[in-house]
Amino acid sequence: MDVLAGDIGGTKTLLMLARVEDGQLIPGEIRRFSSADYPHLVPMVREFLDDHGNPGPAAAAFALAGPVTRHDDRWQAHLTNLPWQLDSHELARELGIRRVTLVNDFEGTGHSLDDLPADSLHVLQAGETDPKGVRLVVGAGTGLGVCIVCPGQSRLVLPTEAGHSGLAPADGQQARLWAAIHRQEGRCTREHLLSGRGLGRIARFLMSEGHAVDPTLAKAMEQADPAPELTRLALTGADPLAVEALSLFCRIYGGQTGDLALSTLPFGGVYIAGGIAPRILPLLANGGFMEAFLDKPPMTSLMARMPVKVITDTTAGLLGAARLAADKAP
Known about the structure:
Nucleotidyltransferase, domain 5, five-stranded mixed β-sheet, 14 helices, 25% strand
């Protein structure tokens, strides 16, 4: 059986055909499309299927950046950064696919956990895995995604908007940062800091506290998105302020992930996803993230029992969409 999977973003869309044999998912080649080059998803998918000899997939699932609403077995979505309105029934009719499912992109990552190869998981803390335990997925990227994967044979992934919850500062420095963001934005949420834009906000806060700024960093901070250059300077150790900004980012990331873990008790595992984590893996593995994760007295020993892993495969959402399509196939 063939299934079609898609990961739809404002800039790019990834499409993949996967084969399902005896319940095992065998991913196929991934093709990337520029989303803005197409007026709608349908002509893009038709082109993709025609290029593959139109194998007639049994089902399709699309993970997308935007809210998804469900009415019985019908899913509808309006993408955040594209003028596309998607309806699962209309897509099924126009594409000739019996079953089409739409899901939020981060929820798609939650569906990928059982199919991720071992080499796409970097262990930060081995913990004591409970195969029947809840699993928590947290991922910083353009925003901050959070979902909960419930135990059981019928996989249930619970999406959340916990990234928009208020951030609780862990120390005096974070309290001053919280206050600065609150003055600018009217509140300080987790996503205000744990995102690409958040890294820039952290660097500007450190600059406001008198940290020296060299010309290279000053030029980077003039860019609309300074995060890539900040990350490069931090990972190479080329700029002390960049190093401190990313270090503070990791401490906040670990602390907030720990708070989320206290709310869900994910002894099945904590999975760090999103586009940022694989790029800063050396710093995540260097202590600050896990120190902040564990610093939850009187529950530190409880936190030490939770497995913590980084998902290094940035196409996990696509893999999850393929698994969801396989599960929903008629």
